[in-house]
Amino acid sequence: MKTNNSLFNPKPGTKEYKRFIIAQNAYRQEIFLSFFGIYGQSPGPTLLLNAAVHGNEVVGVEVIRKLVEKIDPCTLKGNILGIPIVNPLGFNFGDRWDPFDRQDMNRVFPGDEKGTLTERIAYFFFKNIVPKADFIIDLHSAEFPDEMIPHVRLRNNCPPDKGHWKFINSCGIDVIWQGPAIPGMLQVEAAKLEIKCLTLEIGAAGLINSNNVKVGLTACENVMKIMGMIKGTAKIPNRQILLKSNEEWIRSPNGGIFKPDIHLGQMVRKGQKIGDIMDPTSFNSENIFSPLDGIVTGITHQSIIRSGTRLFMIVHFDNEQKDKHFRTINPSLPNTKIVENKLWQTIKKYLT
Ligand SMILES: [Zn+2]
């Protein structure tokens, strides 16, 4: 690890579990972060895994739990540090944030030692844990009640230099979504310390399913294999699909009960029926049709809807612009087998 610190006991070949007490709630119960360290027998990089910066995004919590169970410190090269729930305040209420201070923790890094409770936890994490890492995987899910196709969320000011792209490629996720850099985000603030942070968006807030956990687990293990921390060959798609964050959601024209006909990653045609809205007052229903050709990249899990509720995100590709949307993987990644990007196969069929 970069520096020694009395907070940790990084003895090679061991696992460590700790609680870092930070503050108190109104009833004087301790507010703490649960930490684990897996200290490899051999030297190597230090990877920080964290989840639930938004308290209800729990897919990553399960991904980290499974990794802690699986990874043997005696065969690990380097160290893995983990905070499975960075925002225990939001988690405690099953919410994205703490209902008292209503702050988005992913907008307040590096935090404030004397600030609100959210800012104090962010400060502790950013000051004591983040600087120990060479790389971070920051696990998120789509905001409730939506789900988006699993993707890497890349913020523009993180320079897409070779090292960062290698890290992005290494996770093997098919889609990269580029969005604006907002001060206070973990990825953006970690970049100022020259620490590479991969933000993964997998699944929906408040929900876990085994497919999404597998996607997250595979992504983390791919990174560790390519970095030489664990043994094995990473399966990496031959190209990653680049999307911009200005894609718009298709919103409901009316209220009622919504039933989708399509799923994430499916190709749809303009005019195709993609769902129904049932009228709860008459028990009639109306059909919803796709306004464009494209791939379904977002969907709501909410059934009770009203006018303006987000239903689907469908991204259009055309033949002329398709090269802008794809980035070929660097074939020189170590410990890697290059495989076809399945989503690209779907898109290719729709383009021809
Ligand atoms: Zn999030």
What does this structure look like?
The longest helix is centred in the middle third of the chain and has 17 residues, at 210-226. It is built from seven helices and 20 strands. It is 21% helix and 35% strand. The protein has two domains: 14-231, Aminopeptidase; 247-352, RNA polymerase II/Efflux pump adaptor protein, barrel-sandwich hybrid domain (OB fold (Dihydrolipoamide Acetyltransferase, E2P)), CATH 2.40.50.100. With 352 residues, the chain is an alpha/beta fold. It starts with 13 loop residues before the first strand and ends with a helix. Bound molecules: zinc ion. Residues 54, 57, 140 line the site of zinc ion.
Q: Cofactors and ligands present? A: zinc ion
In which range does the helix fraction lie? Answer: 10-25%
Q: Number of helix segments?
A: 7
Give the C-alpha Rg.
21 Å
String of helices and strands: EEEHEHHEEHEHEHEEEEEEEEEEEEH
User: What's the shape?
Assistant: globular
CATH topology label of the largest domain:
Aminopeptidase
